[in-house]
Amino acid sequence: MWNLGRWWKLEGRMLRSLLVGVGRSSIAVVRAQQSLVALRAMSSTSSDLEAFVRRSENVQNRLDTMKHEAIIGGGEKRIDAQHGKGRLTARERINLLVDPGSFQEYDMFVEHRCTYFNMDKKMIPGDGVVTGSGRINGRLVFLFSQDFTVLGGSLGEMYAKKICKIMDKAMDVGAPVIGLNDSGGARIQEGIDSLAGYADIFLRNVLSSGVVPQISVIMGPCAGGAVYSPALTDFTFMVDQTSYLYVTGPDVVKQVTNETVTHDELGGAHVHTTKSGVAHRAFENDLEALQGVRELVNYLPSSNRDVVPELEGPGNFQEPVHALDVLVPKDPFKAYDMKHIIEKIVDFGEFFEIQPNYAKNIVIGFGRMEGKPIGVLGNQPMSASGTLDINASVKGARFIRFCDCFNIPILTLVDVPGFLPGTAQEYGGIIRHGAKLLYAYAEATVPKITIITRKAYGGAYDVMSSKHLRGDINYAWPSAEIAVMGAKGAAAILHRGASPEELAKKEEEYVNEFSNPFPAARRGFVDDIITPSTTRHRIVEDLLMLKNKKVSNPEKKHGNIPL
Predict the structure, then answer these.
(1) Please, which residues have CB within 8 angstroms of residue 402's CB and are 6 or more apart in sequence?
(2) What residues have CB less than 8 Å from 501, skipping those under 6 apart?
(3) Cβ distance 542 to 472 under 8 Å?
(4) Parallel, antiparallel, or unpaired for β 481-483 and 244-246?
(5) What are phi and psi of 530, to 5 degrees?
(6) What is the Cα–Cα distance from 207 to 168, expressed in whole angstroms?
(7) Contact 423, 390 (CB under 8 A)
(8) For the chain, which terminus, N or C, has the lower number of CB atoms within 10 Å?
């Protein structure tokens, strides 16, 4: 029994040792298997990581390549050609227009989708237009700049969508839109898609009108349907000698009318700033044009929901400006420059004139009164004696409506002997066009201050922001002559057949009775007869008083201005 017991114990120990050994071996095997799995996993992970890194590097390389392609546009040769014509590139213009480092580009990698005429082999990121937002003196603007080095800057489907996107965003946030135009027109290869693109832009021009300021700068060709977008914007600037704007080019004109005309003679900056009135200012080069845009934007609110941007004024508005007492000649038939009066009234003599070379018989532009922007209109005795004609009426009416859209007060300086007579004016529709100016003044609800410096005759007196057209404050200088017509003409009509001596006497009687500011003052048609040197002080005080003016027109869809 004892031997069997010892044997059993011995066997038990051996069995347990064997089981323990087996267990340890199994654990070792499992651990080995786990290590192998882990090793394989690590190998797999390392392989995946390497693949991911390669993909990332590939994407970054493609991104860098596409950015470079977008930035150089049509390539160095075409950029050199652009410079050779005296024109900057699309991106150079943007960099000069907006504050340094403020430009945020959108849709740099957009490409066209056209496959006709081998267009699938002419893919350039950006598709020929640079779009985005930036800041001018810290204020937000949206802009597009057409790149003539890419397919001649021609507009296609995706090109138009890029422009529409920034126009929509400008409406959403309330910021001006600036278009730098340098394009050969519609992209023929894309057919109807390019025409649809233009229409999409035109629609946004119309919907944005009166909501956000729109400024166009023509810095190269702008022809065909493309011209109607600048025409729908508020202001159009051009660059002399390097830009042109026309519906049909010289070749078509030659075929249809047999006229031989150059690009510049047909649609250059000089033509549109002196004859057609299509453009508002002309500049010698791209740099000056872009600086002009920056200056203009400083006078404008960002939208119709914004207040006008204010700067610090000189603070001397209470001081009399004695030069104003002597600027109007005592001789009623002697001309003087209305711009000199404007410069003596506005802050620091700074006046940003609009359309200075078109319809010179009326002066329009922006100035400031104690830092606050105002719109200024004045008859110009130096040109056609300051009479109102067709072009002056249209020029003034459009400017008034812009100021009214964006809550910019209007100052009107009056020295007008009447509407220009003659068959050319009558046949051209002076009645209809003159009514536009009347309509614009009557419709405007912004603060309106009027100063009659000398003549205010006939219907032209009524039209030039008279009290009868809801002028808020109307002043007359002592030199003012407010009457149906001039004394000489009135005497000749009232006393037909009288001798020259009698006519001279009656003319003097008419002057004493009617050709002065007193009849209007007695009837309340002018609020005061003021000393010219106090004009600036009175205007500043009146603008402060009218700051919270609230006037509305009758409810209606819109009026029917005599277009």
Answers:
(1) 234, 375, 408
(2) none
(3) yes
(4) unpaired
(5) -115, 155
(6) 10
(7) no
(8) N
Q: pLDDT by residue for the chain (563 residues), tens digit each?
A: 445 455 445 555 554 554 445 455 555 555 656 665 555 655 666 777 777 777 777 888 888 887 888 888 888 999 999 999 999 999 999 999 999 999 999 998 888 887 788 787 887 888 889 999 999 999 999 999 999 999 888 899 899 999 999 999 999 999 999 999 999 888 888 889 999 999 999 999 999 999 999 999 999 999 988 999 999 999 999 999 999 999 999 999 999 999 999 999 999 999 999 999 999 999 999 999 999 999 999 999 999 999 999 999 998 899 999 999 999 999 988 999 999 999 999 999 999 999 999 999 999 999 999 999 999 999 999 999 999 999 999 999 999 999 999 999 999 999 999 999 999 999 999 999 999 999 999 999 999 999 999 999 999 999 999 999 999 999 999 999 999 888 778 878 888 878 888 888 888 888 888 889 999 999 999 999 999 999 999 999 999 999 999 999 999 999 999 99
Closest CA to 286 of 80, 79, 83, 71: 83
**CA–CA separation, 142 vs 135, rounded Å?**
8
Residue located via tokens 């882990």: 38
Report, as residue numbers or ranges, the catalytic residues. 224-225, 459-460
What type of residue sits at position 502?
E
Beta bridge partners of residue 245, listed in sequence order? 222
Residue 529: Cβ within 10 Å count: 16
Q: How far apart are CA 245 and CA 391, in angstroms?
A: 20
Nearest to 374 by CA among 431, 288, 453, 313: 313
